[in-house]
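Weekly puzzle thread! Below is a chain. First person to post its structure in token form gets bragging rights.
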Amino acid sequence: MKQSLKRMGILTIFIYLGMGLFLYLNQRNLLYFPTDDEQTAYESFDFLNDDASVHVIVLNKGYQNAILYFGGNAESMAGSSDYIAGQFPKFTVYLMDYRGYGKSTGEPSEKALYSDALKLYDIIKPKHERISVGGRSLGTGIATYVAAQREVSKLALITPYDSIVSVAEGLYPLYPVGFLVEDKYDSVSRVKEIKAKTLIVIAENDKVIPRENTDVLIEAFDAKQLEVIVIKNRGHIDISSDERYYKIMQDFIGEG
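Winning reply:
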């Protein structure tokens, strides 16, 4: 009996360690879901940053005010182009393919995507009077970083989280996630540096980002700075298919 219990204990330890090693080695594969290269009729340009070529799609070129949008972890910028262009006809909109996504080269990582996002902002800044920034899901971590580092007119966060570490802790409570996760996307830590008027849009039935993670981010903002809207009967994926979604975004972005 004792030998059986000992063997079970050893097996449990090996399973625990093996699963932990798997999660550690595959963490970026679990976080990033690169999209294929799709054709689009819109103008685009590429810029070099470190060892990567970053592809940017430009919608509604030539307007004074711009929107810089960072998508979700499996969102195709080319695939979203038509709808976004139609919803924001008075804004020039920039859609950045993350490294390894679409036409961009390289491998995605938190550090690399932050660097690419700031460089893109600096490239487009001289062309526009005001720049608003939007992010969805994974992209909210990049959007908050840009808003904390650069002058932003409005900041819109769709299905955001406090940090990737916090979300992962909920998924894998038996592991020391804070030590294992390399790409932390710690939005809540930089809220105090964000000066822009901010909108947070929540999907009532979101099964990907737990509501408690979004609520922690909400609590970190000054209430006077923040507007929070919940879209009922929608989940993490289908929130953008609701007609209320773009109306909310249009009303918030306004003329700036």
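Puzzle host: Confirmed. Bonus trivia for everyone else. Residues 32-253 form a domain with the Rossmann fold fold (CATH 3.40.50.1820).
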